[in-house]
Amino acid sequence: MAAGPIICGAWYFTILAGFYILYCPVMYLMFINHHLYRKIVDLLFALWELYPVALFQWCYGTKLHHYGDYVNPNETTIIVMNHRTRVDWNYVWIALYHATQSNYPECICKEPAIMEEANFFDTVAGGKSRIKIVLKDEIKSVPGMGWIMQLNFFLYVKRNWQEDQVNMSQYVEYYKKLRYRQRVVLFPEGTDLSEDNKRRSEKYALTKQLPVYDYVLHPRTTGWSTLCSSLRPAGLVSVYDVTVAYDTPAQTELDLLRGNVPRHVYFYFKRYAIEELPSEEEALRTWLMNRWTEKNACLQKFHTDGWCDFRHDNQQAGCRKNSTLADSRKIASLTVYSDLGIGQRVGDVLAQGSSAIPLGNDCELNGTMP
C-alpha cells in the first residue's frame, strides 16, 4: 500500500523537523530558566501528540472505541496497560486525548488539593498533567524521536534493576522538586505479545507455577511497585488499569509501513483512587497480577465471543462521548505544524471538525465492548 510509506514518512518527518526547528532553539533555556523550559517543551510535545491522532484516524481510517472512566488531565496518575503490539504507543496518544475530553457525570474523579487556575500553557496543552512513557533504554538513541523524548525527560529502563532503581529514583525526585503533575504510561509486561515473547512467558509461568495466559504476558511487578510507592509522596492521585484490543493488530512498525493497520481499536479505562491500592510493595505486586488475570479473561471473551464486560465491580462504567477536533489545542497544533510546512492536509481535515474524521468513540453505558 503506497499510503503506508507516505504516512510513516510524514510522521517521522514531523519528529525530525520538530527537533531541529522547535526543540533545538529552546534547549539552552534549561540552563537559564528551567521551569520555563519545561513548560515550553511540554507544550511542543503536547501539540505534536495531536498529529498522530489526526494521521492515524484520518489517513488510515482507524476507529477508536472508548469505554470506562474519564481520565482527569490535571492529576498525577500511573496508567498500566497491556502491551499487545510494538506500536501500542501510537494509539495511546489517541486514547488519552479522547479520554480527557468530556467528563461523564457518573465518573467522579478526585481533584488534587493543590489545583491552581489553568493558565495559557495548561489550556493549550490539554491539562496540567503531562504524558510520560516508560521506555526501553535503547529507544533514547533513535534519531529525532529518542532525542525529543530525552529532552522531555521520559523514564528509560535498562532491565538491570540496580541501574533502573537509581534512574527511577532520580526521575521521581526531579519531578517532585518541580511539583510536576504527570500521567506515567507503564507497560508492565515489558514487551509486546509476539509469538516468541508468548512462549517465554508460558515457560516462566510453568516454572513459577503461575497460570498460563493466552492474551497477555505475565507482568514485571518490581518496577511497578517501586514506581507507585515512590510517586505516592510526590502527589500520586490515581492509577488507571487500561486494556487495549485490536480487530487486526499491527504487530510491528513494518506493518504500519505496509499499511496493514487495525480498523478498530478498543480501549477500556478503569480508575482506582490511590487510597484503594495497598501501601506495601508486595501487596502492590499482587494487585497488579490480579489485574492481569482479569485482563486475560476479558480479552479471551472479547476475541472468542466478540464482546466483553470489562467492569471489575458493580459500578456502572462511564461513557466516552464523541469528540470534536475544533478546540484551542488543535488550532495551536495546526499553526505550529503548518508553519513547518507539514501536515497541511491533516490541518484542513482538523479544521472541518469531527465530521471529516472517523473518530468512532462508541459508548456502551453497561461498560461492555462489542
UniProtKB/TrEMBL annotation:
Residues 77-225 form the Phospholipid/glycerol acyltransferase domain. GO terms for cellular component: endoplasmic reticulum. Keywords: Acyltransferase, Membrane, Transferase, Transmembrane, Transmembrane helix. One of its GO terms (biological process) is phosphatidylinositol acyl-chain remodeling. CDD domains: LPLAT_LCLAT1-like (cd07990). GO terms for molecular function: acyltransferase activity. The keyword Coiled coil does not apply. The chain crosses the membrane at residues 12-31. The keyword Acyltransferase applies. Belongs to the 1-acyl-sn-glycerol-3-phosphate acyltransferase family. This is Phospholipid/glycerol acyltransferase domain-containing protein. It comes from Pieris brassicae (White butterfly).
